[in-house]
Write a structure and sequence with these properties.
Layout: H1 8-23, E1 42-45, E2 49-54, E3 72-78, E4 84-89, H2 91-101, H3 107-118, H4 123-140, E5 143-147
Antiparallel strand pairs: 1-5, 2-3, 3-4
Helix pairs in contact: 2-3, 3-4
């Protein structure tokens, strides 16, 4: 792709994902508890959600603005009002969403795994901050609620 900026493919994907999510017909295909305990239950992610990682800050690329490579994590989802929401997230949030995507771990189990992987000196802090993060993701519509462990994914 001679002549194009090095971020062209990432930027094109970023723009494309909005259309993909806007026209998606995916929906939660199982019952869930919208007010369920996100630590004890299995958080159910919004089925119209993308957890993205780019080598460029694609959400900030604009004409006449110098852009440098930078690892960037973005959460993109369609909310209850059918609006597409974009949020820059950190690597911790991206990893949590990746762990929850399979639908097999409780919120607590996913956060405990992150604490082990990161070798954090205070795992209780990870659980506390992670619990608040799970609540925030539910409030924004990225998590719909919970299902009980052992229910089909």
């Amino acid at each position: 792709m001679a002549g194009y900026p090095p971020f062209t493919l990432a930027l094109a994907h970023y723009e494309w994902i909005e259309l993909v999510l806007a026209v998606s017909n995916r929906s939660a295909d199982r019952a869930f508890d919208a007010a369920g305990d996100l630590m004890a239950g299995v958080p159910l992610l919004n089925p119209v959600l993308a957890n993205l990682r780019y080598d460029w800050p694609v959400q900030r690329i604009a004409p006449r603005r110098k852009t440098q490579p930078a690892e960037t994590h973005l959460l993109v989802f369609r909310d209850a009002d059918d609006a597409i929401r974009f949020s820059e997230i950190n690597a911790f949030t991206a990893r949590l969403l990746t762990l929850l995507e399979a639908g097999a771990l409780t919120g607590r189990a996913a956060l405990e795994r992150i604490a082990i992987e990161s070798r954090h000196p205070d795992p209780a802090l990870i659980l506390q901050a992670g619990g608040a993060l799970l609540d925030d993701l539910r409030a924004r519509g990225a998590i719909l609620g919970t299902r009980q462990p052992g229910e089909g994914a």
